[in-house]
Amino acid sequence: MTGFSDASLRERAARVVPGGMYGHLNAALHGDAYPQFFVRGEGARQWDADGREYVDLMCSWGPMIVGHRNPRVEAAAAAQQALGDCLNGPGPVMVELAELLVDLIPSADWAMFSKNGTDATTQALMVARAATGRTKALIAHGAYHGADPWCTPGLSGTTPNQRADTVEFTYNDLASAEAAAEEAGDVAAILVTPFKHDSFEDQEPADADFARGLRALADRIGAALVIDDVRAGWRLDLRGSWEPFGVRPDLTAWSKAMANGFPIAAVTGVDALRGPAQTLYSTGSFWFSAAAMAAAKATIEILRETDGPALMERAGARLREGLAAQAASHGFAIKQTGPVAIPWLSFEDDATLDKGMRWAAACLSEGVYLHPWHNWFLSTAHTDEEIDRALLGTDAAFAKLRAAFGAD
Amino acid sequence: MTGFSDASLRERAARVVPGGMYGHLNAALHGDAYPQFFVRGEGARQWDADGREYVDLMCSWGPMIVGHRNPRVEAAAAAQQALGDCLNGPGPVMVELAELLVDLIPSADWAMFSKNGTDATTQALMVARAATGRTKALIAHGAYHGADPWCTPGLSGTTPNQRADTVEFTYNDLASAEAAAEEAGDVAAILVTPFKHDSFEDQEPADADFARGLRALADRIGAALVIDDVRAGWRLDLRGSWEPFGVRPDLTAWSKAMANGFPIAAVTGVDALRGPAQTLYSTGSFWFSAAAMAAAKATIEILRETDGPALMERAGARLREGLAAQAASHGFAIKQTGPVAIPWLSFEDDATLDKGMRWAAACLSEGVYLHPWHNWFLSTAHTDEEIDRALLGTDAAFAKLRAAFGAD
């Protein structure tokens, strides 16, 4: 295919895809400045269909974690692909990957694999329901747990029955979780993200007392504590994102960055839930394909050997410091929230996101891809040089914004 | 990893995966003779972890359709992978693939992509529900539509609410479908496989009157007719499996063989449902990854250029004739059901499947991988020579079975 442009592709896509695009990568949701089509990635960079190069601070919305086209991950997947990927059973690599997860994650005595993050959150709730014989899942209001009808943030195409087995509480409000448990009665699981990373809002760390309180609540009512580490997993603590609190879940859902972009998801769980997990019929045509498992093994080994989270924390701290200095120098009051490796920036007094949208658009035009209403993601490919390159763009974007808004 | 065997891998897997394995590829479901782990595929052959070679009549339970490691498909995926797979937006190949589907499939005015067959059946029902504002889906009793809680054949881990939006009818019994529609009242969709391919049962073609009657029923009650072509798609008629009846669905779910083993699924639909489809929030981290789309495009192009269904029909006819002659010569009364490209063999007077299990086990030991209670799948790599090699094994297996049961 030659001679395409983002505009020509959009025009063609509008004829053969509803709305031209859908889901979280739909540029229509992101703002007029956003390109829709991408053609290449390398390390911390991506190129759109118009050939524009970006320092990529979204990492494909999470999956990329050791750099686009990481040579070791690509080689591991290609070597497996050269033998076979989708066969009449899993390859030996499934066992190796499960052993790696069990070795690495204190709350993991076993693992089950699938494709989508939503497969993992759904499967985790199935295990909890099989174990307890109960139906309800407590979830935080506004939290994203996937796009299946039971959890998609859009209600279109869903039925009341599909939404009837979840009961909401307020993130970081233990009393609200206790009240929801009381109200629901029949609680199989408490499903919670390791920090609050809802779209359109400042990110919020979990209070240690909230995390410990949910663990205690789950124990008291005999429900499973399920951490949805699909978005945050592998960037903060390879042992699980609440390990620093000393809070270990019964079940954890993993996906996104697990295989550096290759499609895979997993549920890990404690020994007590091994029997109930065996009773499920949960499967998919490609869930046992070997190439993505080889990629996952390589990705996780790289992260462990290089202390990937420390590298991403260094990159994130450098970015955060740089952005803070730039905002101050251009006279903008900003908030930087979330773990530094999963950062977000918002402007004070910007309820409409007008400033945020304009600044993000200016960043795009300066060759930095980040987002005005969804958290960003860093990778181990974000070296000091890449962060500094990004900061050149963000500084120019602040200057443009200042020019647009006039002197402070 | 060296020095492994199927037995040693099972022992290790038992420690780190619930039950050692789960889902449709769990060898424990298939019989003692079945190997669990596979290491390699090539053309119409697969090798298990003990190095045993098989003529593969299961095609990885559907996904392989132009031969394991088909050079053109592998090259297309690798070329895309070398540029980028999972990026901040889809690649141009998404447009090309959607255009190909719209060009090929008369009932397709648009396409949406996902990963699992279950994603596609679920998404199709979401579109139908968004379009109609109704909740219920009519499905045939015993039909497999995936493994999400709403449709998995195992009830463990599911809730009554999750199962409450489907109403069953009897396959090939139009009156039962009409009665189910009457009973349900609030019907958004009729979801149906193009033929009856339930496990443990002889396969059954759809009656043309049944297919046309469902189309008329859907029109009369204002529901969407959804064909679940996940299992049968691409092997019978590239235009959709009910096109020979002249029955065109409103929506079709596709997956399995679409990309020769690369993970992808799709929903295609008619123009009237384009608007409702736009209202969904349905997405996944890897749904827009480009390598699997490049593989899908190459697979479908090969199937179209070579008339893949005709090749598979030739292979299936040769297999069916050979098996019929062998069974007669060894004095076994058998039934061969399903389209010849998606065949199955069962024994008369074998309600316990004892004969079928023994014969399948003997086939395995003769280097032929097929199945005693699930339909098989052929591919375009099943040349006359491969079918003849398989028939050598099945003949020896009939002989063993005859020896075990004594003279007829």
Automatic annotation (TrEMBL), chains A, B:
Q: What is the lineage of its organism?
A: Bacteria, Bacillati, Actinomycetota, Actinomycetes, Streptosporangiales
Stored PANTHER family: GLUTAMATE-1-SEMIALDEHYDE 2,1-AMINOMUTASE, GLUTAMATE-1-SEMIALDEHYDE 2,1-AMINOMUTASE 1, CHLOROPLASTIC-RELATED
Q: Which cofactor does it need?
A: pyridoxal 5'-phosphate
UniProt-recorded name of the protein: Aminotransferase class III-fold pyridoxal phosphate-dependent enzyme
Q: Which UniProt keywords apply?
A: Aminotransferase, Pyridoxal phosphate, Transferase
InterPro entries from the entry? Answer: Aminotrans_3, PyrdxlP-dep_Trfase, PyrdxlP-dep_Trfase_major, PyrdxlP-dep_Trfase_small
Return the similarity comment: Belongs to the class-III pyridoxal-phosphate-dependent aminotransferase family.
Q: Does the keyword Ribosomal protein apply?
A: no
Q: Per its record, what are the GO molecular function terms?
A: transaminase activity
